[in-house]
Specification:
Number of strands: 5
CATH superfamily: CinA-like
Oligomer: single chain
CATH architecture: Alpha-Beta Complex
Radius of gyration: 16 Å
Order of helices and strands: HEHEHHHEEEH
Length: 176
């Protein structure tokens, strides 16, 4: 029986992770220096990137909005991802990650976006896209970069690694 009054909290609190908070602070500084805003488009992380960003006080100066587009319909409705693109390539694909990043820019006032779509598990994987497969898309001032990664571990570990890698790479790209 589940006690709804005392929810289960994962032992590894992503938002309290000093590595993640350091990446958020670095990203915030870089965005503020350029005068740019950030939007997120998240599927497998369910808003964890946006949550990590807004954990930092003053984030409204550089964080514009987050889209949690867990379903294919949400990707289409909120971000303008073509349903045929999802049908052809699958939700976990380079094409969809790219379209999600572009859609976050098109549907916000941000100049920077990070998008993630993946298979966090424990189910949903396939031989072509095993559990832990994540496609990333970063849109920075009109340029989109994509990358596929595969993370080991349980659902929480895959999601935490996805957040960390998304922010780490974003900070790196903003420095370039």
């Amino acid at each position: 029986m589940v006690n709804l009054m005392e929810p289960s909290i994962p032992s590894s609190n992503l938002l309290a992770d000093p590595g993640t908070s350091g990446l958020v602070a670095a990203t915030a500084g870089l965005l503020l220096k350029k005068g740019w805003m950030l939007a997120t488009a998240e599927s497998c992380t369910g808003g964890l990137i946006a949550g990590a960003c807004t954990e930092l006080a003053g984030s409204s100066a550089w964080f514009e909005r987050g889209f949690v587009t867990y379903s294919n319909a949400a990707k289409t409705e909120l971000l303008g991802v073509d349903a045929a693109l999802i049908e052809t390539h699958g939700a976990v694909s380079e094409a969809v990650a790219r379209a999600m990043a572009a859609g976050a820019i098109a549907h916000s006032a941000a100049r920077v976006a990070v998008a993630v779509t993946g298979v966090a598990g424990p189910t949903g994987g396939s031989p072509e896209k095993p559990v832990g497969t994540v496609w990333f898309g970063w849109s920075i001032d009109g340029q989109i970069r994509t990358e596929r990664r595969r993370f080991d571990g349980d659902r929480a570990a895959v999601r935490a690694a996805t957040v960390h890698y998304a922010l780490q790479t974003l900070a790196h790209l903003l420095q370039a």
